[in-house]
Design brief:
192 residues; alpha/beta; Rossmann fold; seven-stranded mixed sheet; three-stranded mixed sheet; 5 helices
Length: 192
């Protein structure tokens, strides 16, 4: 999947990246199905509603065009096991992988694409970085916002409210061109 990203930096930069694997992070099980921490799984369901997966690499796995799609079933904190096994099997470099995950530091309804960067306490990303030996993979960060008060662990494992799901679905509509056209070049403006 070729993705052309236009940044709003001056002078205008155009970056083209080749992604061979999309990794949607979340936790398996009905109790986590609509939680904030499962923003990656929710986007995958939105993009591929009729997907038929096979179990491979400790993941729900499928091929969509020329890109591999995986949903690790290892629970978030061990996602690196699934990603490293698939990357090794298909001889992928870290920069050919895009990990889609929830992000507390971005407001609800915002998304940001970046390569590398800090882990910001995200244990799924930490696991992937540890298993790949580098953090130089692409990340699509889906903003879930930070709670004003209360325990972050409870916040991320609680379901989105109905009004929040409307916002998330609007964001997913905007992200569809970036992620659902495997093998085609797609232009999307992303906050740089």
């Amino acid at each position: 999947m070729k993705v052309k990203i236009l940044t709003d930096n001056y002078p205008l930069r155009i970056l083209t990246i080749m992604i061979r694997m999309l990794v949607f992070l979340g936790n398996p099980g009905k109790e986590y199905a609509s939680t904030r921490h499962n923003a990656g799984f929710l986007l995958c369901d939105y993009l591929y509603p009729d997907a038929i997966y096979q179990m491979k690499f400790h993941s729900q796995f499928m091929k969509a065009g020329d890109v591999y799609v995986i949903r690790p079933m290892t629970f978030m904190n061990l996602s690196g096991t699934a990603v490293s096994e698939a990357a090794s099997f298909y001889h992928m470099a870290p920069e050919e992988i895009m990990v889609i995950h929830d992000d507390l530091e971005l407001p609800l309804g915002k998304a940001r694409l970046q390569k590398g960067g800090g882990l910001q306490g995200h244990n799924g990303l930490r696991s992937i970085k540890d298993r790949l030996g580098t953090g130089e993979f692409y990340r699509l960060r889906i903003g879930i916002g930070r709670p004003e008060h209360g325990d972050v662990r409870i916040y991320v494992t609680s379901p989105f409210r109905k009004d929040e799901m409307i916002t998330i679905n609007q964001l997913f509509q905007k992200l569809r061109p970036l992620l659902s056209a495997p093998g085609k070049q797609t232009e999307v403006s992303i906050d740089a």
